[in-house]
Amino acid sequence: MNKLKIIISIGIASLGIIASSCKIQSPFSSLDKTIKVVKDSVKVQNPIKKIWENDPHLIALIDSVLKSNIAYQIEYQQIQIAKEQFVMSAGLLKPNSSIQFNPSLRKFGKYTMDGVGNYDTQFSPNISSQMKIPENLPDFPLGLQTHWEVDIWGKLSAKKKAQAIKYMSSEEGYNWLKTQLIAKTAIYYGELVALDRELSILKSNIEIQRKAVELVKIQKEAGVVNEMAVLQLEAQLENSRAQIGSLQTEIIGVENEIRLLLNNRKFNIERTLLPIDTDFSKEYRNIHLDYLSQRPDVKQAQLNLEAQILDKKVAELALKPSLILSNFIGIQGFQPQYLFQLPASFSYNLLGNISKPLINRSLLKAEIRMAESKIKAYELQYIQTLNNAFLEWDTNIKGLDLMNEQIKHKSKEVELNFNAIQTVGELFRTNNANYLEILTSQQNTLKSELELLEIYKKRWINSVQLYKILGGNN
User: Fold this and answer.
1) pLDDT of residue 249
2) Among 137, 232, 292, residue whose Cα is nearest residue 439
């Protein structure tokens, strides 16, 4: 009986050790802690507010894109996959336990050690009739079976940490796609607003040109000008009217690009004329290079490198011996009615297994070399991502200042051209200017207005690109 108590104590103790490693907790608790540490370490607030915050139509459009875009939804599923992969890696640190009932039937050969032994026990005076072993031997084991690889070298912990970092990397990929979608939507919206404004400018100039044609016709009837003046001004008017169809075609094309992002062929895109000539340059005056480290693609490249370093460590530790503990504790008998006759039916099995790879070491070493090559590739990718971020920032921040200077001069040109139209109109009525001067002033005014609008559009795109370059609002 004392011996039985010792055996039971050993079994319970081994289960206790395994159970302690199986403490129930949230599978993401350690991951959440890791993420919090990483995020807290880079808490640098981006001073740039959304440059379109005063336009409710654009805000609503961006929200619709983020809810409907297929690529964005696919990327979200990639995050869920990475999260479950982390759960799987965390599970490797814990024992694999299951309740097992494995009934079987065996018959040993007559001329085998087991066959002779079982036959001989039939004549032993030390066993009861219930303990006699039948020739066809049933077996009914019922109990808890546990396998546990002890993380003696930290291989499983490294694998778990690598998966946690890969999960964070997938989150940054998701954030980067979000930033790109927001920027792309805002750029398309700005192009639409610019096209609407261009259409409005063209229609206004058509009205000016129409009045000029009427005036020239009156002058022709009065004998001041000839038919050539009327024909040239009418040709200019028809040319402007023809441009309306071209602009409307461009508008349809940009609208459909937005509908493609929305995955909605019939979405009505509401917009205003508000944002296209808004100056955002003040928002970017105090930006410094530290903000580039917050870009999701930069953080993703860094996390990919860190995860790959851990993957290499896992590959190296795979060459070391591994320790696996196996444990079965339960009840067993060769007839079902004996299973619950405790303590007689109590059964246990404790096994430790230490193994070290020999045959497949070349395969494991190849995995190490492959991991080293991946590390070098991720290092280069990280450097390239940083360089790209800096050069994008440098190009756009300098371009913003240059475009503001352009706008100042071009706005003055537009103002002068409008004054010129009024002046030449008065001069023409008093026969102090000819129709060619009217034609030239109208052409110059339309040209300068459209050029100013193009600069406004480029500045809008530049500002949106800066929003993206600095990582958006992630």
Assistant:
1) 94
2) 232
Which of 20, 334, 53 is CA-nearest to residue 182?
53
d(CA 379, CA 365): 21
Pair of tokens at residue 263:
């995955």
> 347 has which bridge partners?
330
Residue 281: other Cβ atoms inside 10 A: 15
Nearest to 458 by CA among 194, 244, 197, 269: 194
Which of helix, strand or coil describes residue 84? helix
Q: Which residue has the tokens 């340059």?
A: 281
| CATH number of the domain bearing residue 169 | 1.20.1600.10
Structure confidence at residue 254 (pLDDT): 92
Within-domain flag for 371: yes
From residue 302, give the alpha-carbon distance in Å to each of 81, 142, 150, 307, 467.
20, 50, 31, 9, 21
Q: 144 forms bridges with which residues in the sheet?
A: 99, 329
In tens, the pLDDT along 379-435 reads: 999 999 988 888 888 888 888 888 888 999 999 999 998 898 888 888 877 777 777
Q: How far apart are CA 83 and CA 465, in angstroms?
A: 31
173-196 confidence digits (pLDDT tens): 888 898 889 989 989 998 999 999
Instruction: Look up the domain containing 267 and give its range.
Output: 47-94+153-321+365-469
Sort strands 96-101 and 137-150 into parallel, antiparallel or unpaired.
antiparallel
Asked if the structure places residue 474 within a domain, the reply is no
Which among 316, 325, 330 has a CA at the least distance from the CA of 367? 316
The 10s digit of each residue's pLDDT in 53-79 is: 778 888 889 999 999 988 888 888 888
Model pTM score: 0.71
Please identify which residue in the block is written with the tokens 């971020």.
389
The widest CA-to-CA distance across the chain, in whole angstroms, is 146
- What is the tens place of the pLDDT at every residue in 268-318? 888 876 556 776 666 666 666 677 777 888 988 999 999 999 989 888 888
Q: Is 93 helix (H, G, I), strand (E, B) or coil?
A: coil
Strand, coil or helix: what is 103? coil
Question: Which amino acid appears at position 373 of this protein?
Answer: S
Give the list of residues 6+ apart from residue 71 with CB closer than 8 angstroms, or none. Answer: 177, 181
User: What is the enclosing helix (H) or strand (E) of 146?
Assistant: strand 137-150
Q: Does the residue 336 lie in any domain?
A: no
Whether 196 is covered by a domain: the verdict is: yes
* Tally of domains in the chain: 1
